[in-house]
């Protein structure tokens, strides 16, 4: 090997050695305080964010003080409850109630609101959960309270009185009083509601509220006997009467929400006493018949009767009517109609009846003095349960469940667990 080759090898070895030495050189971190083992850069960042935190807290305190000082008069309990107007408890439709007890009162009204029992007397409004615990409890002073329940709010008004109130599951959302008596009120599923009130200049004025603000006003020169708003808050139906030459003339008026003028008006040869909404429009109950209309006010059917009507209910695609068959009232004919006025069910029950409601699932719940009865409209199947003699109201809580409300307590009935009285088990 030549001297030149040896020299090149030595140089290569030296370069390799230098490269290894350069790779093993430790990396220097800026601002490293070797004496304390801390990084001054991150200490400065941490200190800056600490100052920003205290500055944010100080600005929050200043903002709160400013708002309380400038808008203190607007910070009220009612405004705070308004913030929670759309918060409701979990709906528990079909769940059985247990342990529900309340104080017996001379005036008692019952309803189901958002899966809870709404118990209204002349002096209070209370909500009870399925476990029997009392939730909302507030005072009122109503002579004849009426409950209107939707999934969103609970409307309670004093028919013939001057006040109404709206509730969520937790609080009173709205209270209002008028100078003249309330004839009727109703509420749509989204919380839009109407109140029909007497008036000095007109026979009646219907106030429509959207999000608790007055949205429209309909002035009528006729007396309004009842009023209803469609579930989707697009149509309004009013039953009216007026005196013409000593005789009553009855009419049913229809409005599209957002429009001032009527979209339709139909005269009926009857005295209207109630308006109920249906799946297709409205049903108007009179002294001698029930009349069905679509949402635009076109007549779709009717059923006329001569006998005295003792009670009724309208829900979804059915209407149920009860007529006593004798003076004692211990025989009652039950007729179920579709929205064309056709009879879907017709039978006589040899018992005194206290109440009747449609289930919303093709059945009817009947309350007699000794039993709660479920009848399937399509098949005629019956199921029944013995009840307390103090029962006053039956409420549908599900397809096969109902709540029987007595003077001082309420009890659920699961009809599906009972044997069929007709021997036709489904």
Overall structural class, as computed from helix and strand content, comes to mainly beta
Tell me the span between the first and last alpha carbons: 108 Å
Summed over residues and divided by their number, the pLDDT gives a mean of: 87
Low-confidence stretches: 1-24
Instruction: Enumerate how many helices there are, as a single number.
Output: 3
Shape: globular
Identify the strand order in the major beta sheet. 3-34-33-32
For the biggest sheet, the summary is:
4 strands, antiparallel
The amount of beta strand, in percent, is over 45%
How large is the radius of gyration?
35 Å
Q: Share of helix among residues?
A: 10-25%
What does this entry look like structurally?
- The radius of gyration is 35 Å and the shape is globular.
- The longest helix is centred in the first third of the chain and has 32 residues, at 40-71.
- The chain has 426 residues and is mainly β.
- It has helices spanning 3-23, 40-71, 77-82, and strands at residues 32-33, 38-39, 100-101, 108-113, 116-121, 124-128, 134-139, 145-149, 154-158, 163-167, 172-177, 182-187, 193-198, 204-210, 213-220, 223-229, 235-244, 247-256, 262-268, 272-277, 281-286, 289-294, 299-304, 311-315, 318-324, 332-337, 343-349, 353-358, 363-368, 371-376, 382-386, 393-396, 401-405, 409-414.
- It has a 4-stranded antiparallel sheet, with no helix packed on it. Strands 4-5-6-7 form a 4-stranded antiparallel sheet, with no helix packed on it. A 4-stranded antiparallel sheet has the order 8-9-10-11.
- It contains 3 helices and 34 strands.
